[in-house]
Amino acid sequence: MRFRPWLLVVTVLYLMAVAWMTLRPSVYGHTTGEYLYRALGFFERHDATNWLTFSVVESIANALMFVPLGFFLALFFPKRLFFVAVGLCVLLSAGIEAYQGSFLSSRVSDAADIQHNGIGGFIGAMIALVLRLMFLPFASAGRKPVSTPARREPARLVR
Questions:
Q1: Cβ distance 155 to 102 under 8 Å?
Q2: To 10 degrees, the CA torsion angle through 69, 118, 67, 29?
Q3: How far is CA 82 from the centre of its chain?
Protein backbone atom coordinates (compact mmCIF):
# COMPACT_ATOMS: atom_id res chain seq x y z
CA MET A 1 0.00 0.00 0.00
CA ARG A 2 1.37 3.38 -0.85
CA PHE A 3 2.00 6.09 1.74
CA ARG A 4 -0.89 8.50 2.25
CA PRO A 5 0.12 11.72 4.03
CA TRP A 6 -3.49 12.74 4.64
CA LEU A 7 -4.08 9.50 6.55
CA LEU A 8 -1.05 10.13 8.73
CA VAL A 9 -2.21 13.68 9.51
CA VAL A 10 -5.76 12.56 10.37
CA THR A 11 -4.47 9.72 12.54
CA VAL A 12 -2.05 11.95 14.44
CA LEU A 13 -4.77 14.56 15.01
CA TYR A 14 -7.13 11.89 16.30
CA LEU A 15 -4.41 10.46 18.57
CA MET A 16 -3.94 13.96 19.97
CA ALA A 17 -7.67 14.16 20.70
CA VAL A 18 -7.58 10.75 22.43
CA ALA A 19 -4.57 11.88 24.48
CA TRP A 20 -6.37 15.08 25.43
CA MET A 21 -9.41 13.10 26.60
CA THR A 22 -7.53 10.38 28.46
CA LEU A 23 -4.31 11.86 29.84
CA ARG A 24 -5.62 14.89 31.68
CA PRO A 25 -6.73 14.90 35.33
CA SER A 26 -10.45 15.21 34.59
CA VAL A 27 -12.32 14.13 31.50
CA TYR A 28 -14.84 16.94 31.77
CA GLY A 29 -15.49 20.06 33.77
CA HIS A 30 -18.03 20.64 36.53
CA THR A 31 -20.82 21.84 34.26
CA THR A 32 -20.38 18.95 31.82
CA GLY A 33 -20.53 16.46 34.69
CA GLU A 34 -23.63 18.18 36.01
CA TYR A 35 -25.38 17.84 32.62
CA LEU A 36 -24.36 14.20 32.34
CA TYR A 37 -25.67 13.27 35.79
CA ARG A 38 -28.86 15.26 35.20
CA ALA A 39 -29.47 13.33 31.95
CA LEU A 40 -28.70 10.02 33.64
CA GLY A 41 -31.15 10.92 36.43
CA PHE A 42 -33.82 11.55 33.81
CA PHE A 43 -33.20 8.15 32.20
CA GLU A 44 -33.16 6.44 35.61
CA ARG A 45 -36.69 7.64 36.38
CA HIS A 46 -38.17 5.82 33.36
CA ASP A 47 -38.55 2.05 33.24
CA ALA A 48 -37.58 1.77 29.57
CA THR A 49 -34.27 3.56 30.07
CA ASN A 50 -33.29 2.88 33.69
CA TRP A 51 -30.59 0.49 32.46
CA LEU A 52 -28.69 3.50 31.11
CA THR A 53 -26.27 4.08 33.99
CA PHE A 54 -22.98 5.95 34.18
CA SER A 55 -21.10 2.68 33.83
CA VAL A 56 -22.95 1.79 30.62
CA VAL A 57 -22.43 5.26 29.15
CA GLU A 58 -18.73 5.16 30.04
CA SER A 59 -18.31 1.71 28.45
CA ILE A 60 -20.04 2.79 25.24
CA ALA A 61 -18.03 6.02 25.13
CA ASN A 62 -14.76 4.10 25.55
CA ALA A 63 -15.63 1.78 22.68
CA LEU A 64 -16.83 4.62 20.44
CA MET A 65 -13.67 6.64 21.08
CA PHE A 66 -11.50 3.87 19.61
CA VAL A 67 -13.66 3.08 16.54
CA PRO A 68 -12.11 5.88 14.43
CA LEU A 69 -8.64 4.98 15.68
CA GLY A 70 -9.07 1.33 14.68
CA PHE A 71 -10.39 2.49 11.32
CA PHE A 72 -7.46 4.84 10.63
CA LEU A 73 -4.83 2.39 11.83
CA ALA A 74 -6.29 -0.44 9.73
CA LEU A 75 -5.81 1.68 6.61
CA PHE A 76 -2.04 1.74 7.23
CA PHE A 77 -1.73 -2.02 6.79
CA PRO A 78 -2.61 -4.46 4.02
CA LYS A 79 -6.08 -5.92 4.31
CA ARG A 80 -4.85 -9.27 5.61
CA LEU A 81 -3.07 -7.53 8.52
CA PHE A 82 -6.03 -5.53 9.84
CA PHE A 83 -5.63 -7.27 13.21
CA VAL A 84 -2.39 -5.33 13.77
CA ALA A 85 -4.53 -2.19 14.09
CA VAL A 86 -6.63 -3.89 16.76
CA GLY A 87 -3.48 -4.92 18.63
CA LEU A 88 -2.16 -1.35 18.48
CA CYS A 89 -5.45 -0.07 19.88
CA VAL A 90 -5.24 -2.52 22.79
CA LEU A 91 -1.59 -1.61 23.46
CA LEU A 92 -2.37 2.11 23.35
CA SER A 93 -5.29 1.59 25.70
CA ALA A 94 -3.13 -0.41 28.12
CA GLY A 95 -0.57 2.41 28.06
CA ILE A 96 -3.27 4.99 28.76
CA GLU A 97 -4.62 2.96 31.68
CA ALA A 98 -1.10 2.46 33.08
CA TYR A 99 -0.47 6.21 32.85
CA GLN A 100 -3.78 7.01 34.52
CA GLY A 101 -3.08 4.54 37.32
CA SER A 102 0.47 5.79 37.89
CA PHE A 103 0.23 9.55 37.43
CA LEU A 104 -3.40 10.70 37.66
CA SER A 105 -4.87 10.20 41.12
CA SER A 106 -8.16 11.75 39.97
CA ARG A 107 -8.66 9.07 37.27
CA VAL A 108 -9.47 5.40 37.72
CA SER A 109 -7.41 2.83 35.86
CA ASP A 110 -9.69 -0.02 34.82
CA ALA A 111 -8.96 -3.21 32.86
CA ALA A 112 -12.52 -3.09 31.49
CA ASP A 113 -11.58 0.15 29.71
CA ILE A 114 -8.86 -1.72 27.82
CA GLN A 115 -11.43 -4.31 26.78
CA HIS A 116 -13.96 -1.70 25.64
CA ASN A 117 -11.31 0.29 23.77
CA GLY A 118 -10.15 -2.93 22.11
CA ILE A 119 -13.71 -3.70 21.05
CA GLY A 120 -13.99 -0.20 19.57
CA GLY A 121 -10.68 -0.65 17.75
CA PHE A 122 -11.89 -4.01 16.41
CA ILE A 123 -15.13 -2.47 15.16
CA GLY A 124 -13.23 0.35 13.44
CA ALA A 125 -10.75 -2.07 11.85
CA MET A 126 -13.60 -4.27 10.63
CA ILE A 127 -15.37 -1.28 9.09
CA ALA A 128 -12.15 -0.37 7.28
CA LEU A 129 -11.69 -3.96 6.11
CA VAL A 130 -15.26 -4.28 4.82
CA LEU A 131 -15.08 -0.94 3.00
CA ARG A 132 -11.75 -1.86 1.43
CA LEU A 133 -13.09 -5.22 0.30
CA MET A 134 -16.18 -3.59 -1.18
CA PHE A 135 -14.64 -0.58 -2.90
CA LEU A 136 -10.92 -1.26 -3.32
CA PRO A 137 -10.52 -4.99 -3.86
CA PHE A 138 -7.06 -4.68 -5.41
CA ALA A 139 -5.72 -1.59 -3.63
CA SER A 140 -3.53 -3.32 -1.04
CA ALA A 141 -1.76 -5.46 -3.62
CA GLY A 142 -1.11 -2.48 -5.88
CA ARG A 143 -2.19 -4.35 -8.97
CA LYS A 144 -5.08 -4.41 -11.37
CA PRO A 145 -7.35 -7.40 -11.83
CA VAL A 146 -5.97 -10.07 -14.07
CA SER A 147 -7.83 -10.22 -17.34
CA THR A 148 -7.99 -13.20 -19.58
CA PRO A 149 -5.60 -12.99 -22.50
CA ALA A 150 -7.10 -12.13 -25.84
CA ARG A 151 -7.68 -15.07 -28.07
CA ARG A 152 -5.01 -15.23 -30.71
CA GLU A 153 -5.97 -15.68 -34.30
CA PRO A 154 -4.12 -18.44 -36.12
CA ALA A 155 -1.29 -17.21 -38.32
CA ARG A 156 -2.15 -16.97 -41.99
CA LEU A 157 0.24 -17.58 -44.76
CA VAL A 158 0.63 -14.66 -47.07
CA ARG A 159 1.26 -15.43 -50.74
A1: no
A2: -90
A3: 11
Q: What is the pLDDT of residues 107-125, one digit of tens each?
A: 889 999 999 999 999 999 9
pTM of the full structure? 0.78
Q: DSSP code of 12?
A: H
Nearest to 27 by CA among 106, 99, 136: 106
Per-residue b or e along 101-125, where b marks 16 or more CB atoms closer than 10 Å to that residue's CB: eeeeeebeeeeebbebbbbbbbbbb
Arithmetic mean of pLDDT, 134-150: 62
Smallest CA-to-CA distance from 18 within 121, 156, 101, 87 is with: 121
In angstroms, the CA 131 to CA 142 distance is 17
DSSP assigned state of 151: P
